[in-house]
Amino acid sequence: MQEQIPLLVNGRRSMLLPFFLFGLLFLAAAAMQLKLGSPAMTWEELLSIIFCRTGDDLRRTIVWEMRIPRILLGFMVGTMLGAAGAIMQGAMNNKLAGPELLGISSGASLAMAAITVLHLPITVLLHPAVALIGGLAGGLSVLIASRGSRGTVGLLLIGMSVSAILSGLLIILISLGTSNDVNLLYTYLLGSLANRNWNHVLRLLPWFVTVLPLAFFFTSTLNLMQLGDEAAAGLGVQVRRARMWMLALCTALVAITVAQCGPIGYIALIAPHLARSLLRSLDARSVLPLSAICGGVLLTAADTVARLLLYPMEIPVGVWTTILGGGLFLAFFAKGQGGGTRA
Q: 69-334: what fold?
């Protein structure tokens, strides 16, 4: 018992540096997001607009009604995706697990696309619920189809197949739409934070403050499930039930973000890898919160790049996260960290 106490203390100390570094990165990305672009403004003007609400009306409107909501929305969406990725990889005990591979993102995207193409009379306030139903349908399809499979690798392969089918249905649905529908869906399906405002933040906030905290109730179970299904069951975990509850929670976290910003790939897949690498630990009590913060900072930084790199032209942030995530994922494989089934 005496040997375990220093380990816990060291584990807590080891979290301070990663959190500090991510905090600096977030502040740098947010500062560039606020200041750079058109119209140009000095640091004095920006600080005056933020803290004193004084200055030119146009600049004040751009900062408070466009850029600040965009930063907050990006951080909240990234945080939810990062937490979902950590839970999913722990529940599946597989580093390759992600919402893109289990039909969740595809199901939510298909549901949202149906609203646009079929012109369904569904109010914007109900879009998160519709996306949640679509995500649950995609995830449940994977779980039902995988009943006869053995192990999580088989489940992931079935998930990839279901995602491919849902993507095919999405293409068919898009082909039925008008040119205006296709233009709207094009940017949405790439994943974007452009043209978001306080309404989007307020629609996401209730889900953020209610669903995200539920993730931290599963940390002890996640630690046991990393020992393997048989060992976890021997320690009293009802593995199948726990996994279904965790996948349902991940579906809720991911589907709500899809409803607001479209499917933003690789954040949920990469954030847990970065968290584990920085902490040099598999302890879900540390990995889960750091993965959530990592996801929020990654998406905020990627969105800053998306808006400013080719300014005034803007590439949707989902494209940049795919490029960044794909590159980082290849780097993990090169180091021999990506191929195992253990989380």
A: ABC transporter involved in vitamin B12 uptake, BtuC (1.10.3470)
Residue 3 C-beta-side C-alpha neighbours within 13 Å: 0
Query: 265 with 322: CB under 8 angstroms?
Result: yes
**3-state class of 95 per DSSP?**
coil
Which pLDDT score is estimated for 13?
Answer: 52
CA distance 65 to 196: 9
Binning the chain into helix, strand and coil, the percentages to the nearest 5 are 75, 0, 25
3-state secondary structure of 25: helix
Q: Is the dihedral of CA 179, 184, 187, 191 positive or negative?
A: negative
pTM, 2 dp: 0.88
Kindly report, residue by residue over 75-119, the tens digit of the pLDDT: 999 999 999 999 988 888 878 777 877 788 888 889 888 888 888
Q: Which residues contact 290 (CB under 8 A, 6 or more apart)?
A: 15, 18, 19, 22, 275, 278, 279
Average pLDDT over residues 306-334: 81
